[in-house]
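Posting for a labmate who doesn't have an account.
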Amino acid sequence: MAEAAGRTLGDEEVAAAERVIRSGMLNSVWGTEARLLEAEVARMYGLPHAISCSSGTAALHLAVVAAAPDPGDEIITTPITDFGTVAPILAQNAVPVFADVDPGDGNLDPGAVAKLIGPRTRAIMAVHLFGAPARVDELRALADAHGLTLIEDCAQAWLAELPAPEAADASPRLAGTVGDVACLSLQQWKHITCGDGGIALTADDELARRMRLFADKGWDRAAGRSHASFGLNYRMTELQAAVARAQLAKLPGVVAARRRTAALLLDALGNVPGLRLPRPDGHAWWLFPLVLPGGGARELAEALAAAGVPARAGYLGEPLNRAPVWHGPVYGASRGPLEGYTPADCPEADRLVADTLLVIDWNEHYTGEHVEVVAREIVRATPRSGGRA
């Protein structure tokens, strides 16, 4: 197999880093690279505002700040995601409320979300898991009906596409363009990288203002050394931004290559019993997920790994609603707004992580030959009955 981690780092990124170093200005407050990156990402997504920051987690923190929860307010999200989705909720003294997921793809189930909306709900945070578009149109309708902020975590879903509107001439929309704020990640293992980095996107002028201030210590630089509000230092460096710009130019090719080989694997596995295959529509293929409705994902993952295929069962050690963090202090010796809090059960998420979900590392360097190896080993190790979702 090809190196599962991939990467398209090369001479362009070296030249970008050298350009910044030779300029002598590595700080984005006075440099140009971060502002150019923001403009390029905003143009790619067709949105007026992009705010660069130090990580994908920082971008999500900016999004939570934009939602402006009061201490103890609730943000509904998924239990199948990186802890970076949840940490910003805790950082703002808000309470994460975990809704169950669609057993077919692990994304938030809007029906489960609807049942959890209450008087303290402030926002819904959806994750486009593994690059598969979440049902954000349904979540948008819920958010609008209840006056909530909708946040899209697109860390794994660069250029993922949502279903086109009903109009005959409408083009597909990018994941990240339906919510009030969308968050992208440039962490080492994402589609493109600058080591760590993030982007928050919005069409709302006021939300953009809040996020820019928070990312720069609440410093209104137009007013001099004046701190207009509470904030942290989440600024992206010029080195990060320059490397990210070089990577951004490669992004369409990265996603197209992943889609091409993922389509080959979908075709090869179309008649394999016991598998529920991911829907390809709009998928960005950060990972290639498989669901075994009858269970046995751990056994299959072990067989694939033994054959050299980079496969893992469950994706997480446990869904985040089962994480040990909820049983101890969070803020010093205090649990803050989590006093008396017990995350709700999410049985579909439990089953996916424990028994039915398997992910295969995927990247833009895979070839048809790699796909043949993966398909052969899956067919060899999968004797059950099932079909495409």
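Reply:
Got it, the structure tokens are right above this. The chain has a mean pLDDT of 95.
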